[in-house]
Design a protein that fits this description.
single chain; about 350 residues; alpha/beta; Rossmann fold; 2 domains; eight-stranded mixed β-sheet; four-stranded parallel β-sheet; 18 strands; about 25% helix; globular
Amino acid sequence: MSASVLLIYTGGTIGMWSDPRTGALRPMDLEHLEQQVPELERIGVRLGTVAFEAPIDSSDMKPTDWVRIARIIGEAYDRYDGFVVLHGSDTMAYTASALSFLLEGLSKPVILTGSQLPIGTIRTDAKENLITAIEIAAAKDEQGRAMVPEVAVYFEYRLMRGNRTVKVHAERFEAFRSPNWPVLAEAGVHLRYDRAAILPHRTGSLRVHDRLDDRIAVLRLFPGMRGEWVQQALSLPGLKAAVLATFGSGNGPTDPEFVGALRAAREQGIELLNVTQCAGGRVEQGRYVTSHAFVELGVIPCADMTIEAVLAKAMFLLGDEQGTARFAPRMAAPIAGELTLA
């Protein structure tokens, strides 16, 4: 019996079709997908399709949409071997990170993909990304288990863990990188999987979470950043946490006004998270004098997590039933392979 894959279209460039007469872009008709991409008939996978009624540009994607995708997967979970989510590339890494936390106990592939050019364009990258993502979602190992039992992003011949992925280029086909974790698979003449890099198979049933708390700010530090600006940003009503995108291995200004603004936020119970601005590497809070204040204030170091993963994980933990009771230790412990313990 051939494998079955559910294709979930949320929006984005990959789902646009260029009208050959007018050149105008319009959403792809999923019901006639195999007519538009005839190569799909030869891969031997039974496809199901579901689409958002109104396709969303990924720049408009919200946490409620992440939950919606997770629910679609949960409702269809027992009927399909894998899932492919067609998504705009701009915020794909955020959605992939969020799904990795929302889908607790996942043991099937959830592969997000998109493209830099519409599927009807002559030089498009959409067809290869779509076809290979479907093949990966359907792939099984020698024991009949899913080859990739986790949320991942496939783009331009590389499969990457979703919550380790960042978008690095607006125009090149190689739009994504996984700076702190090995590529899960590479597509050439053959699909070659790095099994040591893929999450181990999980037992038990899937649990779909549906609560995210988006009362979070992200502050990217820069030289000369004024303490009063930080204080104003951290004084927003209802704010529960703030992600500090810091320098190097987790460093920041020692300016008394800046540190004072952070101290005031902590006294109000706001959680502060330290993630590096660098594309690769990890936070080593306290290694330099410029991060000693963070240690003293109880700022949470986020190891080698991406900003996207930190934001999604914080929303997930704040929305969880346990709230902030065990927020710091849970942020510091891996849930879905999003960080490497030192």
